[in-house]
Design goal:
Strand content of chain A: under 5%
Strand order of the largest sheet of chain A: 1-2
Mean pLDDT of chain B: 94
CATH superfamily of chain B: P-loop containing nucleotide triphosphate hydrolases
Order of helices and strands of chain B: EEEHEEHEHHHHEHEHEEHH
CATH architecture of chain B: 3-Layer(aba) Sandwich
Distance between the termini of chain A: 61 Å
Distance between the termini of chain B: 24 Å
Largest sheet of chain A: 2 strands, antiparallel
CATH topology of the largest domain in chain A: MetI-like fold
Low-confidence stretches of chain A: none
Oligomer: heterodimer
Low-confidence stretches of chain B: none
Number of helices of chain A: 12
Structural class of chain B: alpha/beta
Number of strands of chain A: 2
Radius of gyration of chain A: 27 Å
CATH architecture of the largest domain in chain A: Orthogonal Bundle
Largest sheet of chain B: 6 strands, mixed
Number of domains of chain A: 2
Shape of chain A: globular
């Protein structure tokens, strides 16, 4: 009796030790997964950084940041002569921002409008059918949009411009911006819908009970209350648009023009990165290294916009006492 | 009991249903002006639905159906040509959980005033906000921090702010849907004191699950069970001399 009890006791002991080890192993596994994500990101940033430093040693920070001409193609290989290209960021930054602004001009009103319809006017049945559709749209590969932009929208705008006697480039920023805008509508709409839907029913009731019409309730209560979420939705749209590569690569211009005319062709930072890194190139050339600088610039731009958005939301929360 | 000769609100044979589920059955009640009428009843008996019929807040539910007549000063508020916005300006509401908007104390009270363009200058608006906060017995506590986010006030203060918000558009009736349900006893006592004071000027209709609260503040008390009125009487008679066996059972905690 005693011996049997002792035996089970030691068995229990062993089981407990095994359990502890298993818990420890699992913890380590998850910690590894978490640190891997961080390490990979860190590694990427460091690679970008060292590449960008190598580039800036050849070109110079001022020439990069404030240069008005982007022409990396000259003398891309040593045997083509020793002429270095020109690496002014402004035409590409301008092109990226122009396309992004055009895209947001389309996507923000339509996306917010769609979200307001979904969250405030649609019946629950309509919402349950439309919301998954919207999320499906967000999953269309961008190369499909790029195809559409290059083969339909850009030629169409070029043709229409010709009919009206307006000079529209066959690779116009407008075409890129419109298609990028269409691409980001589902992202903006879905996030904005979530933000609106999360506004408590109690506030809607209070507004209606005070004699607000449905539209007044939305404008005076729901939209202000959802403000932080709506800002996030627009930020997602911004980062999707500025990071968009395929559409601009396929439908945009390859030469970087410094222009704010949406009817001209522009290139973007992302499209240039692809052009610079595809094909056979000498790795240590300024042209190849400039891709690192562009990527780092994009990263910093994304960080900056995020910071602005986060601080906007923080200020809103301080003012309205929500947490 | 004798119904008030000239009731503010009069319900005649009101029945209501969500989808096919009946919530109110043939309710006939009247609520007098310048007093507190309490509606008691167990959870799910339809007392909140009854209250929300009086400012047509149920209209927003697509499956809601109502029959019978609801008269405010003799006018049927469900008549086809009735103006629901005008109705809600006359009939304010305070909810179970304090629900101030995520705005400042001032902007909460000013909400309805701005919505209906009741004042035409900033100083008139400030005066109206002060008057409403004073009437809601909150002014002294918030006068130095009108810019404070409303959600930073205590629960009891938030509920008095919601009362001030309702008072700001000069209603005639105030519907109170268990206004003290989420408050501690001290905050509850302050709200009850305030309601008694407001009863001198408004028709107050108070839904509550607290027998003691109805006994403390109401002039008339009604008991609702399963959507039907069981008994209505002067509050003292209702509690000391209940007529209906179901009332006796409810009062004894059954």
């Amino acid at each position: 009796m005693n011996a049997a009890a002792a035996l089970t006791e030691s068995q229990r002991h062993r089981r407990r030790r095994w359990q502890r080890r298993r818990e420890g192993a699992l913890t380590a596994l998850f910690a590894l997964a978490a640190s891997l994500a961080v390490l990979v990101t860190l590694g990427m940033v460091m690679t970008l950084f060292s590449g960008a430093v190598g580039f800036l040693q050849r070109v110079g920070l001022v020439d990069y940041l404030f240069g008005l001409v982007w022409q990396p193609q000259i003398g891309m290989r040593a045997d083509q002569g020793l002429v270095e290209g020109q690496f002014g960021l402004l035409p590409l930054l301008g092109g990226s921002l122009l396309i992004t602004v055009l895209a947001l001009l389309l996507a923000v009103p339509i996306g917010l409008g769609a979200a307001i319809f979904l969250a405030e006017y649609a019946t629950s049945g309509q919402r349950n059918r439309l919301k998954p559709l919207l999320e499906l749209l967000a999953g269309i590969p961008t190369v499909v949009y790029g195809f559409f932009a290059a083969l339909v929208v850009a030629p169409l705008l070029h043709y229409l411009g010709g009919q009206l006697g307006i000079a529209v480039s066959a690779e116009s920023a407008l075409a890129c911006g419109l298609v990028v805008g269409v691409m980001i509508i589902p992202f903006v709409a879905s996030m904005a819908d979530d933000a609106l839907y999360a506004v408590p029913q109690a506030w809607r009731d209070a507004a209606i009970a005070l004699g607000a019409t449905h539209a007044e309730m939305i404008r005076r209560t729901v939209l202000p209350a959802a403000f932080p979420g709506l800002v996030s939705a627009c930020l997602i749209g911004f980062s999707k648009a500025i990071g968009q590569t395929m559409i601009v690569l396929m439908a945009g211009s390859l030469t970087a023009n410094l222009t704010f005319n949406p009817l001209d062709g522009v290139s973007s930072m992302t499209a240039q990165i692809i052009t610079l890194l595809s094909g056979d190139q000498e790795f240590a050339s300024a042209a190849t290294l400039s891709a690192f600088a562009l990527a780092l610039t994009l990263l910093i731009l994304a960080l900056l916009t995020n910071t602005v958005g986060v601080s906007m939301n923080q200020r809103w929360r301080q003012r309205h006492g929500q947490n | 009991m004798t119904p008030p000769s000239d009731p503010k609100f009069l319900l005649r044979n009101v029945s209501a249903a969500y989808a096919s589920k009946p919530v109110l059955r043939d309710v006939s009640l009247s609520f007098a002006d310048r007093q507190i009428s309490a509606i008691l009843g167990p959870s799910g008996c339809g007392k909140s639905t009854l209250l929300r019929c009086l400012n047509r807040l149920n209209d927003r539910l697509p499956q809601f159906r109502l029959s019978g007549q609801v008269l405010l000063d003799g006018q049927d508020i469900y008549a086809p040509d009735a103006d629901v916005i005008a109705l809600r300006r006359r009939v304010g509401m305070v909810f179970q959980k304090p629900n101030p908007f995520p705005k400042s104390v001032f902007d909460n009270v000013a909400y309805g005033i701005r919505l209906h363009n009741l004042t035409n200058s900033a100083s008139a608006l400030a005066d109206a906000v002060e008057a409403s906060l004073t009437d809601a017995a909150l002014w002294d506590e918030v006068k130095d921090r009108l810019d404070l986010p409303a959600q930073q006030l205590s629960g009891g203060q938030q509920q008095r702010l919601c009362i001030a918000r309702a008072l700001a558009i000069n209603p005639e009736v105030i519907l109170l849907d268990e206004p003290c349900a989420s408050l501690d006893p001290r905050a509850t006592a302050r709200i009850e004191e305030l309601l008694v004071a407001l009863a001198a000027r408004y028709c107050l209709i108070l839904v509550t699950h607290s027998l003691a609260q109805a006994a403390r503040v109401a002039a008339v008390t009604a008991l609702l069970e399963e959507g039907a009125v069981i008994e209505v009487n002067n509050t003292s008679d209702f509690f000391t001399n209940p007529q209906h066996p179901k009332t006796q059972q409810y009062l004894s905690g059954g």
